[in-house]
Hints:
Strand 1 and strand 2 form a beta hairpin. Residues 150-156 have low confidence and may be disordered. The protein has helices at 4-40, 54-85, 97-126, 135-141, 159-192, 200-222, 226-229, 233-238, 241-271; strands at residues 149-151, 154-155. Helix content is 75%, strand content 2%. The relative contact order is 0.10.
Amino acid sequence: xxxxxxxxxxxxxxxxxxxxxxxxxxxxxxxxxxxxxxxxxxxxxxxxxxxxxxxxxxxxxxxxxxxxxxxxxxxxxxxxxxxxxxxxxxxxxxxxxxxxxxxxxxxxxxxxxxxxxxxxxxxxxxxxxxxxxxxxxxxxxxxxxxxxxxxxxxxxxxxxxxxxxxxxxxxxxxxxxxxxxxxxxxxxxxxxxxxxxxxxxxxxxxxxxxxxxxxxxxxxxxxxxxxxxxxxxxxxxxxxxxxxxxxxxxxxxxxxxxxxxxxxxxxxxxxx
Length: 272
């Protein structure tokens, strides 16, 4: 049987092409925005923060541009995941369907990490005019992924807190992947038991209901993200990031187990 790492490498090779494609789009967006604001001298930028030149503009706005592109890349990898999950070609491999599913998810997770690293290299170049010495560190600081010092010898982010912030981002991505698969699998399973043949509208309705419920729950949870972006230790004392990580881990574990059940009991027999 094909082992997990063989499947992982093959899927990573396929997804790597999309990384460079979206990265080129990211570069084009940077060049376009730079040219636009240089031409029109509209230094308010995307975040409406006061800027006097292109260096300050990117210092105030590169995080927002990065996040927009990240959301688009995450959507693309979600589409790739579901395409592979239902692909006859990938499932012809002599392997457990659960291995194929996990290799699919974790190869996309690696793709997100690699894409984010490429973005931060570009962001460090954008910060050359305003942060020459520590521009690479600055590009991570704005995402709370690097140790921060607001005053000399006073660290707001410890090594342990830093690890929890990285884990938080990983878990958020995993939950998105697991939920999209859950919506796809569960809608197919439910429509299989319906007495009529035209099930497209029923699938769309089920997915819409699941998305609405998830969006409502997500808004409740995302309101707690202030504890992630706020650098004050007082807020971390009342809403620790490790507690958010624990909640995310439990939710992702539940969705992951459900998806593995769907893949093994329902998806695999239909593919065979």
